[in-house]
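pipeline stage [seq->struct] | target=Leucine Rich repeats (2 copies) | organism=Candidatus Odyssella acanthamoebae | residues=303
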Amino acid sequence: MKYFILAFCAILRGGDAADPTEWDNNHSFISSPLSHPLDFSHLPSQKQTSTPDVTYVNLAAYELEDKGCVPLLTRLIPHHHTLEHLDLSLNRLGKEAAPHLTTLTDRALKLRYLDLRLNQFSGNSLVPVLKNLERHNKIKYLDLSFNSIDSTGIDALCDLTRIATSLQHLSLDFIGVSKNKRLDLLKSLGKSPSLSHVSLAYNLLAGSGREIGQMIKSGETLTTLGLARCDLTLDDFKHIIQAVNTPLPKSRKSILSTIVQPKTRRITLKLEKTWETELIAAHYAQHKLETPQITLLFHLGPS
């Protein structure tokens, strides 16, 4: 039943998955020479002195097994100097593939797009990968949804979001954020210097309304926040609305300058469509400020 639910959720998210051309319109992708993930004949061995450039590798939903993917990741390592886009989503990669993925991300200094959603990574297996991404500071798009990430992994995510100045899109749906790590994660997301899209769908965040509201206020670049099926209560949403309706503290410069009005930030909340979310959207419409510094836009999807 659990795997049926995961598969069903993945199908629902398929329509919302970002098109690679959307996250960076200035980037041109080069197709990988791979015709099939288990066919390595097109990839030169490490003994060859010259290798063709591999910039874009898309192996989503190829039913790759954990051990079976190791030779493929090993073959990709010589192409680290050109690799920018790697999609391994909707496979069955886990602890066997993790060390080789760590080696690849350690050397792939230009990697900007990494999609690992709906695999079988668990515990702290992705911590070295996250540390590599933090050190290189080139990643723009990262999706770890539907993998089980422990407290050590959350700590590594917190470091990445606070430090990475390139990260724009981060999806963390159904990663099992523990109750004692919610606050740390939300604070770190609010301190990100670059994040515009964050998704935390299918994580149990009940009772975190105040912290989510503070994250929205603090995240100066944030434009979209996914909170579908997070078990949030009406009180949580009221706390979020109260937080965004509270004027941001004025700096000394803004107090002295009365001519230029601050630009209103618009943030889209992606939620499931239920009577509760429709009610809270109506409540916000009635209580939002006339000249808000932050405006919430409610995007209500299928329940």
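stage status: PASS
auto-comment: The CA atoms of residues 21 and 27 lie 8 Å apart. The beta strands are 56-58, 85-87, 113-115, 141-143, 169-171, 197-199, 224-226, 265-272, 294-301.
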